[in-house]
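URGENT: need a sanity check before tomorrow's submission.

F., can you look over the Fe2OG dioxygenase domain-containing protein record below? I want to be sure the sequence and structure line up before it goes out.
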Amino acid sequence: MKILSDICIDYLSLRKNIDENGVINLTNYFSKSILSLLQNEIVEIFTKNKKRRDIYMRETDNTPRKMYTVSQKAIYESSDLIPAFYSSKDLNLLLNKITGKDISPVPVESGERFVINGLENAKDTHGWHWDDYTYALVFIAKAPSVEFGGYLEAIPNTLNEKNESNAFTAINNNKIDRHFYSEKNIYFMKSDTTLHRVTPINNENLRVSLAMAWATDKDLRLDLDHMTIKNLYGI
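Structure tokens as predicted:
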């Protein structure tokens, strides 16, 4: 399975970009065939396994989660492709070279290796949050046109303090960057210090994404409770 394209990669430029902006587009560095395979697999799994969530997360100032989710467990039970992609040595090496760090797949027991998120109904949103682990790789399987919402907003280099109500402080005190990704785009995020959300969709459209978490050595030494993941994905 060929994962990466043959395009030359300027790792130092990508590293500088993600350090400054928190998010980088990696679409061109993946083969078109793997992106098409992932799209079909993700949409099929989402359609068959999605669970509705309408909750507010106390950890981030009660920001909303009005969305559908598919858990890591359901993906493992439904797919060989997604686990193989996530565990690929080529993918791991790419992300290590971009970050200049030794990053690795997160523990399977965390439930955060890979999950699927979906917005379908008007006002559905994946509200403001930071992730537990340092990095996230996100593949967009379905996305509405920009005028219908469902795009990424991000505030890089913000402080994530669990159980502290500081999400809205970060929102009010910083510039919000907007990132517009199309279907079969894939982006990489410094997700533990980039406050981010997917904006509400304003009509009945479909936005479906696969989110994959990646850990630093420091992450693996932390005692993470994964409570937000348990609430959102029912694990």
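My own read: The CA atoms of residues 11 and 98 lie 5 Å apart. The longest helix spans residues 32-49. If you see anything odd, call me.
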